[in-house]
Design brief:
Blueprint (H helix, E strand, L loop, with lengths): L5 E4 L4 E4 L9 E5 L10 H19 L4 E7 L15 H9 L3 H18 L7 E4 L4 H13 L3 E3 L3 E4 L15 H6 L14 E6 L17 E3 L3 H11 L3 E7 L3 H16 L4 E7 L2 E3 L2 E2 L10 H6 L4 H9 L7 E2 L2 H20 L10 H11 L5 H13 L4 H15 L15 H15 L3 H13 L2 E6 L2 E6 L1
Parallel strand pairs: 3-4, 3-10, 4-5, 10-11, 12-14
Antiparallel strand pairs: 1-2, 6-7, 7-8, 8-9, 12-13, 15-16
Helix pairs in contact: 1-9, 2-3, 4-6, 6-7, 9-10, 11-12, 12-13, 14-15
The structure holds adenosine monophosphate and zinc ion (ZN).
Length: 462
């Protein structure tokens, strides 16, 4: 019997056996999506790749997954402390396009990147700007329940009203209050945060709406509480994001939902750890970040980056280097060639013992690096070759490397070379070995090598 699935839950800071809230029903999964004021970088995609693997592991364990992801297209300010400019308005100024245009442009670019990385799209992808009414209703209930106050520039959440505010991040609220030197503006406490911001007097924002409190736009955290509740209910299974979301964004999502419906939003809180560049978090604001397109421009296959991410556990930070991407490229190429060379036989089932070992690894809080090592063992091992292929193709439901479909790039083969190869194949079939060898020699002189396959032949340059 393979080990049951265990996941690391950051709320309890423990490895917990995964039990769906509705056994037999769909697992509710909410993952914080991109802020679409710019392209996503490969650090963002490390988190999205971890979430994709999580989803695949849940499915491997027989669950169906209802996956909701938001698109942040309003309200995310340049500082997490509710100051600075809306990133969308800043992005609009930078590009000379409207905020609505860049939201669409970068959402489309994001979806195209997901495909290149074999990250499967969520069941529901929802935009913050399409859910303004839900967010206003959410804020109204928080206010009605006594957790909000209004200042000159917005509606704020009063974190002092909540006994265990900050529990997810184990925030030291008393310490923060004592050492309060930060400028909190009109906020009552440093940890209070905006639920709704007013458009500044005289300011004409591209994105603004009327509300019971005044014209303006939602705070960044409210969209996730509102859309998660709308699509997944008051309390659902798993909520994910990058590790930077622990102290502010997720802490505040929990506060809001607790204030409205009394739950901590999700049963498990899981976080992907950073991709580092030059020892610091890869960040859009740092400039010079790498996109999926940058990898293509340098001649890399985006799936080599997926492979690279599979080699590190999601709960450890990973430093990016071109050398490590080169190594991942080589490993992926070997794995693809290895699987391609194995015969496909629909009658050959995957190997049960290896399936169990693989399951034990992925069920141990998604230990994909060790699961990958099991895949290499299968590839290099001595199982019958069709069984090896079937086992590796089964593993690929989690790895997502497209191993079953991969083919060496077909070179355009000159007509006379193709004819020589076909003549040689006919000679072999007729067991005319001397003639077959002669034709192989001619092919070699022409610079080509012929590989015999159970289903024909493959030509490659020597
Ligand atoms: P954003 O577009 O900034 O809202 O971020 C999208 C997702 O990427 C969030 O879950 C972030 O926590 C995550 N993220 C941001 N930077 C990194 C990084 N350097 N490494 C891994 N994940 C990241
Ligand atoms: Zn969120």
């Amino acid at each position: 019997m393979p080990a049951p699935l265990r996941l690391y839950d950051n709320y309890t800071r423990s490895l917990r056996p995964f039990e769906p809230i509705a056994p037999g029903g769909a697992v509710g999964l909410y993952t914080c999506g991109p802020t679409v004021y710019d392209y996503q970088h490969i650090g963002n995609y490390r988190t999205f790749l971890f979430e994709d693997v999580l989803k695949r592991v849940l499915e491997w364990n027989g669950c169906t997954v209802q996956h909701v992801m938001n698109i942040t297209d309003v309200g995310h300010l340049t500082s997490d402390a509710d100051t600075g400019e809306d990133k969308m308005e800043a992005g609009s100024r930078r590009t000379g396009r409207s905020a609505w245009e860049i939201a669409q442009l970068f959402t489309d670019a994001f979806l195209a990147d997901l495909q290149l990385l074999h990250i499967r799209a969520p069941t529901i992808l929802c935009r913050a700007t399409d859910h303004i009414r839900e967010q206003i209703e959410f804020v109204a209930d928080i206010e009605k329940n006594g957790f909000a106050y209004v200042t000159a520039d917005g509606v704020y959440f009063d974190t002092s009203k909540q006994k265990d505010y900050g529990y997810l991040a184990r925030l030291d609220i008393a310490g923060q209050e004592a050492g309060k030197r930060v400028d909190v503006g009109d906020k009552r406490h440093p940890t209070d945060f905006a639920l709704w911001k007013f458009s500044a007097p005289g300011e004409h924002r591209q994105m603004e709406w009327d509300s019971p409190w005044g014209r303006g736009y939602p705070g960044w955290h409210i969209e996730c509480s509102a859309m998660a509740q709308k699509y997944l209910g008051d309390f659902f299974d798993i909520h994910c994001g990058g590790e930077d979301h622990i102290p502010v964004h997720h802490t505040n999502e929990i506060a809001q939902t607790e204030a409205r419906v009394g739950t901590r939003l999700a049963n498990y809180w899981m976080h992907g750890y950073f991709l580092l560049q030059n020892d610091a978090k890869m960040a859009k604001s740092a400039g010079g970040f790498l996109r999926v397109q940058s990898l293509l421009d340098h001649g890399y296959d985006p799936l080599a980056y997926r492979y690279l991410c599979l080699t590190a556990h999601y709960r450890t930070q990973m430093s990016f280097s071109w050398d490590s991407l080169d190594a991942a490229t080589t490993a992926l190429e070997r794995m693809r060639q290895g699987v391609f060379a194995l015969p496909s036989d629909p009658g050959a089932p995957p190997d049960a013992a290896y399936i169990e070992r693989f399951t034990n690894e992925i069920n141990d809080d998604l230990n994909v690096p060790r699961a990958l090592a099991v895949a290499w063992e299968v590839l290099r091992g001595d199982l019958p070759s069709a069984r090896r292929r079937a086992t590796l193709v089964a593993f690929d439901a989690v790895l997502g490397l497209g191993l079953a479909d991969w083919q060496p790039r077909q070179e355009s083969v000159p007509h006379d070379v193709q004819e020589l190869a076909e003549a040689r194949a006919r000679a072999r079939a007729a067991k005319q070995w001397a003639e077959a060898d002669r034709l192989r020699g001619e092919l070699a002189v022409a610079g080509w090598e012929m590989e015999d396959r159970p289903d024909g032949f493959h030509l490659k340059r020597r």
